[in-house]
Amino acid sequence: MAKRKAENRSFLDKWEAEYLFTYVKDKPVCLVCGVNVAVSKEYNIRRHYETKHHDKYKDLDMTQRSQKVEEMKRSLVSQQNMFKKATSQSEAAVKASYIVAAEIAKSARPFNEGEFMKKCMMKVCDLVCPEKKQAFSNVNLSRNTVADRTCDLATNLYDQLMEKGKDFVAFSLAVDESCDASDTAQLSVFIRGVDSNLCVTEELLGFKSMHGTTTGKEIFEEVSKCVTEIKLPWDKLVGLTTDGAPAMCGKKSGLVGMVREKMREENCGGELTVYHCIIHQEALCAKALKMEHVMTTVTQVVNFIRAKGLNHRQFKSFLEECGSEYADVPYHTEVRWLSRGKVLNRCFELREEICQFLETKGKDTAELREQKFLCELAFLCDISSHLDALNLQLQGRGRIITDMYAAVRAFKTKLCLWENQMLQGNPCHFPCCQSIKAQISTAVFPCAQFAEKLSVLATEFSRRFADFDAQKCKFELLSNPFAVDVENAPTKIQMELIELQCNDTLKSKYDAVGAAQFPRFIPDTMPQLRTQAAQMLSMFGSTYLCEQLFSSMKMTKTTHRRRLTDEHLRSILRISSAQSLSPDIDELASKKRCKVSGLGTSD
Predict the structure, then answer these.
(1) What's the pLDDT tens digit per position in 60-114?
(2) N or C end of the chain: which has fewer CB within 10 A?
(3) CB 423 within 8 A of CB 447
(4) Strands 237-242, 273-276: parallel, antiparallel or unpaired by DSSP?
């Protein structure tokens, strides 16, 4: 019976000529009016034809009917193709608007930049491909549309991060706070998660606007919301890196203390490892030199030259007349990590020209020409250059904490070498000192004094990086597990570590791919080692990403864009900071209904 029903409901070819119907996508469709018939039964099709179209086509014979059917079928196919083309163009227009919105966000440009871009596109289209003008006109880039597209892109990135978070076996957070152009405190929270395949994801977790006070409790509440909203379990949190501010690192009322208390409430078995940003600490170590008097003098000289337009113009003209290699001196900005070294080096190179210029202005240059000051300036230039080189090594995305620690250890070793060489009167790694020493007598150059300063600097490095030194054994398990003394390793991984060190195949793989990639090749039969590697790979060594985000924030929310809403600022920064994730524009476009618009319309 079921088979007979199925056969009775199949569309027959003869119905095309008899009833002017065709079969499209498993449904009978009337060729005259385009109506679909729900059930493919002859009774239903015949009834539609007789009630709607019989009077008009009753006089046609079978030949004429067949010709009419073919003509109608060609017309139907043409209409379908036209609709497909229109749909395709509409989807392309939506995708294009998303792509442009993403580029506007990445470049920190205002939303109304889309309208300017569309005007440019239309003018280019008129000259290059006028036949495509309608397609370009369909791309909606009004201010409101670009703003909406930006929020959609940011939401899509966040959803992807939430999906990836389900696979994290360990994650760490980097937290920092700064103020924007409207003096609103902005809290940035970055996450570095490692999945079961030991692949690292490093993205912006949250960017929270704090319109009131920024105490440790309030910062913790915002960080806790970020972790809860993305549905991450607290027992997988292994590391927390901050800028070292009291509200961040307080053991009781600070963020660190409250996170540890939260983990105890959640019965988390693991221990939270806390770090003070390694780049901040490197910058703070330089203060142990106690050479602010040299920097103050240099800053005063630079400010005298740069503060007044006339002085600045005359100084640049003076350098040009002297045939100097340099055309100007830069300002010193305290918050810029590398500013100090650049200003010192430029002033040292132009010390003679600066003195001559100041004398033409009636300024006393006795201090600038003193041998003691010149020696101190040369030493500060050289040590600042070395510190800047270390700073650059520590910067960047995706930095593994073991590599950052290795760079600091290498610098501490260099300090010991430089101290010994300076005591011997051999500043071979200090080019500015060598230059000054060649101009004055060896007896005047204070080698012992500078050796003492290098010793103080080395002591300060050891003190400030004690928390990193305490993790040395864990760092070695990631950087070079084949050289670790098994007896000093944690008990739970000793057996697996012996198996690893005795496996020649894994040793060859380590030599081939390096320490950063090797953990992915640790077999599943060594779960403790894989867990240990995942925890180390997830650690943040610095808050560099937060600092970089704040730089983008200041470029985005300027004094001219103070009315930028918190939501829009957050969306822009999530797009511009995305590294391992990319917006799924195809998915977004499929959810949007395309709107053909002119230049002045909006969604």
Answers:
(1) 777 777 878 788 877 777 666 655 554 567 888 889 999 999 999 999 999 999 9
(2) N
(3) yes
(4) parallel
